[in-house]
């Protein structure tokens, strides 16, 4: 079955590498001495390593804006737009954006920078590490149209990190109702936090009830788990494994990117 993935990516089962931006202006850990120049240099290093390693796409996020906001300050998306504007000509693969955790600002950033897709929490109410987390998917969908973002693909986190769905519905019901009511372009299935393994049985349930909607394995992808995950997932998003020593806080390691992409090509 042909999906929008076939139009965006030239391969089946694409692997999207994460470009984790350092803390941005306004974030608690922002490096004022290094400033925006240091953030841009870091992003350039990350996308160079990811592309040389052979990833099929890149997702740019403000991963180190901890602790996250569910309604971000304007400076966050503005800073990310500056970074992407500086490196845009060097991006040779399809890319997406993720302003953690603000769906509206993520769409704005995608429209402004030409990103092909957005990953976010678009639907549901959660008890999370960031407090009670609410969404308004109908309003967000209309905002996408209002800012001429109809071509931006929306990847819904169906099992959000660091959060639990408030309603007492099982995953199969949640998947079916999300697909029917919200018409996502993709469903992302995650572990507890960045880098945490995604349970294969969870992937299987989502895939069985997602219909024609592509399913992404969103965390914990490793060479030894990739083949099993890709039995059910249509694509993978990789961040932590690509880092030096597999540590979330480290820079991307070209050798680790090449290792995983070699496995990815063998299982397609």
Automatic annotation (TrEMBL):
Transmembrane segments: none annotated. InterPro entries: BtpA (IPR005137), RibuloseP-bd_barrel (IPR011060). It comes from the Bacteria. Pfam families: BtpA (PF03437). Belongs to the BtpA family. PANTHER family: SGC REGION PROTEIN SGCQ-RELATED, ZGC:162297. This is BtpA/SgcQ family protein. It comes from Microbacterium salsuginis.
């Amino acid at each position: 079955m042909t999906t929008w993935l076939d139009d965006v990516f030239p391969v089946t089962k694409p692997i999207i590498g994460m470009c984790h931006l350092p803390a941005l202006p306004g974030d608690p850990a922002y490096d004022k001495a290094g400033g925006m120049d240091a953030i841009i240099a870091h992003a350039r290093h990350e996308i160079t390593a990811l592309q040389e390693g052979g990833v099929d796409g890149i997702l740019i996020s403000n991963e180190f804006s901890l602790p996250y906001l569910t309604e971000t300050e304007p400076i966050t998306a503005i800073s990310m737009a500056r970074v992407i504007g500086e490196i845009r000509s060097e991006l040779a693969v399809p890319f997406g954006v993720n302003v953690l955790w603000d769906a509206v600002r993520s769409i704005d950033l995608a429209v402004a920078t030409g990103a092909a897709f957005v990953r976010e929490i678009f639907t549901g109410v959660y008890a999370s590490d960031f407090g009670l987390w609410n969404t308004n998917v109908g309003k967000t969908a209309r905002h996408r149209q209002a800012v001429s973002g109809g071509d931006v693909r929306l990847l819904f986190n169906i099992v959000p990190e660091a959060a639990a769905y408030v309603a007492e519905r099982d995953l199969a019901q949640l998947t079916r109702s999300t697909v029917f009511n919200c018409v996502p372009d993709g469903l992302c299935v995650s572990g507890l936090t960045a880098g945490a393994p995604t349970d294969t049985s969870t992937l299987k349930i989502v895939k069985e009830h997602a219909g024609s909607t592509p399913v992404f394995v969103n965390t914990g992808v490793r060479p030894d788990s990739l083949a099993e995950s890709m039995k059910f997932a249509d694509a993978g998003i990789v961040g932590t494994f690509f880092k030096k020593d597999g540590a979330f806080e480290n820079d991307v390691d070209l050798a680790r990117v090449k290792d995983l992409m070699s496995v990815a090509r063998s299982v397609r």
